[in-house]
Fold BZIP domain-containing protein.
Amino acid sequence: MARKLSPAQVEAHRQQNRECMRQARQSQRQRLQEMKTTVQNLEKQYNDLTNRSHTATSTKRLGAEKLLLQSMLKQKAAWRLQLQRIIDFEASSVHHEPQLQGVPEVVIEVMDELQAAREFGFQPLTEQDLTQIIMDNERYVSHVKNRLLSVGAQRELRTRCMQAFGWDIVQRVEDSVLEFVYTKRFHGLNVLDVMKKSWTNGLILEEFKKVKTETRHLQALQRVNSNAFVLARDVFSPSDISTFRSVFVRFLVEAAKDIAVESGPASSGEVVVGTGYILGTQSVDPGCPRPPSMEELSGKLAWADLSLSIEAFDVVNSVTGESYQQISWVGRTDYCSEEHARRNASDTLQGMLHWEVLVIAPALKLVSIPN
């Protein structure tokens, strides 16, 4: 028989039950609160992930729109540049004609088109291509002039300035690139005769070698018109690279340019207009892929990039009344390494002096003195 509890024991038992119930309810409330907190955290994480997904989608969309906008802006810039080139060319005083007056037609053998494509990867140029090449040459040559003839540039260690045989000579070699400006004034010179002879000699190998003696091959690839030919040239080099090859346009155009006055009352930045001719040489991309030759694979042959100009202008200084002829050789060449660029600097300077002896007159006349 169960023992009967006293009233005090019953009350104590009830109190214990109430405390256990209270603790159980408190524990349930804590677990419920923890579950609510967990749910809230999960909802927050879900919202964060959703926002990230939306952000990623928006970022991808904005990135695609940005790329499209950049492409459109580049296309617009290209159109604007092309339009500006057309406008500049129309406004330019440099122009080429079907036949320059007084310049004889030069008849030379032109390589077959298929052979030119096979050997040099060359595709024929159009008149529009020629126009672009002439404008490119003008831009490159102007850049070289502005760069080398500035006061700051002539103080640089890489820039060499000197005078020889009446020529003002500025040269700069940096890495594989040679830039140069040679200028000389003459009196009583017929600039048309000078350029006619230079034009003809530049298309015939035996005559061309008298100026650039290391030339061993010169071949016409295309006659664009009577004043422009595409030529391929191989130049010998006494080095690991034994041959430098170039494919370039040789063109003759009439021109009018501002000539800086260096002396007299008009020396403070004043310019006068010179009229005459420009004989340009501008490398072109052959345009047709071809397998490299054995010489190229062996490293014996490399391609040289040329942007050259011989300028001959009649100049009249309206302030002093002086009239003279100004001849300039200006250009930029890339011959693969600094060693070859320095050798080319020497060869180019010698070539200019050979040209003067051949086309104009001896650079230096030796006079015998009687005993």
